[in-house]
Design a protein that fits this description.
- By secondary structure, this protein is an alpha/beta fold.
- It has a single domain, classed as Nucleotidyltransferase, domain 5, CATH 3.30.420.
- Helix 2 runs parallel beside helix 4.
- A five-stranded mixed sheet has the order 3-2-1-4-5, sandwiched between helices.
- It is globular and about 40 Å long.
- The chain has four helices and five strands; from the N terminus they run H-E-E-E-H-E-H-H-E.
Length: about 140
Amino acid sequence: MALYIYLLLLLFADWSPPQTPFYKANFNGALFHEINKAGIGVVIRDSAGLVIGALSKNISLPPSAIEVEALACQRAIIFARELGLREVVFEGDFETLIKSLNSESISFSRFGHMVDDSCATASSLRSYFFSHVRRD
């Protein structure tokens, strides 16, 4: 429960609504080295700010912070599809990941396969884009 509350607090920081007809899926990941776990969280809201869906999940500790963020992004995309959404802004706070997701070129980084999978999954949506949000 503490993980869920922590991730929700991060996801609600400095939120701005998407333009209609878009939904916004905020995603985040957190590392908990002391228990050898990580957590991912997703909150999806409409343009009025109403929560359409939320989830959090404990996962095995990935090798790096960017990989937990990439997993959170993948889960956000899948969750949006499960909810039947077709126009979605995916917003995260890891700038390197967002730049890779928005890049036209193939990523050869350690997490490149995750970026490619996310983009392939998102391509089934009518319209989507990835947005970076700065969190303090």
